[in-house]
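Lecture 7 notes: from sequence to structure.

We start with a single chain of 321 residues. Read the sequence below before looking at the structure.
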Amino acid sequence: MKQLKIDLADRSYNILIGRNLLPRLGDHLSHLKSARRALVVTNPAINPLYGKAVSEGLQSAGLAVECVEIPEGETHKTLQDAQTVYNHLIANQYDRNTLLVALGGGVIGDLTGFVAATFLRGVSYIQVPTTLLSQVDSSVGGKTAVNHPRGKNLIGAFYQPKLVLIDLETLKSLPMEEFRAGMAEIIKYGVIEDPELFAFLEQNTQKAAEDIADIRKKAWRATVMAEDDLSYLGERNYWWNLYISLIHILMRAALQKDAGPIIGQAIIYPEVEKWYGDIRELRRMTPPLALPEPAINSAEEDMEEFLEEYGRNVRLPKEVL
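Now the structure, written as tokens:
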């Protein structure tokens, strides 16, 4: 098992990465001494696969466990779906000694974290992400939210989990498209923040896919300062957010045209270069980009070839643009 500590003073927590960790979940909850009951929030696709193992792991720590399911998909990251969780908590008289457990991908993690931040003015929660994208991105950093009809993640809070537990066995049930979306997110981290990570990915395509636990640690080290604490408000964070805002604009255009890339895909579409000339121009506009000089100086087709090694279709339909 590999471990990475997110050091945020009294809000610090550990990220645990390994195999067959779900049944031993209870072994890593000793710091949550006040927790008496746990509510697992998941979806109908994930619950039959991992719900029992998580519940038994929680029960081994002496917790009474129940489960609530939210339908699968981004369209169910809403206040109405959060209400489903609130209703269960209130009807069953959960109190501040409650532990919420997010078992699933980014939608479940964001929604569960938002409920934890707001129920009784805040209860503990942990993340048990089951997709590569949520394992390297949304489960870390305390970014919790639900969507509004006018936009994504408009209602939310920064609220840190007490633990992020990543069982690599959950990736066995992950569709290849979802796995590639997670790898695209990792590539983004290399481009923005960590030239060594980018170079490693470029030179070790097969090794990166095989040693995903080590790659996660490299990716997190590249982004912890930028994403893990709301109080971090420097120039890098400003440009990071500007870049991500640009990607969300591109995603929205794609979704409106039914092109619909998931976020990990949209992050690395070279069409961004067309809007701003080329990678050099994008780097000039966003100084913190850490893309190494060999990649900056390479031809666009070389970058596309690299991305395609990770299974990415790097072109948006022309009608989107």
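The chain is about 45% helix and 15% strand. Keep this in mind for problem set 3.
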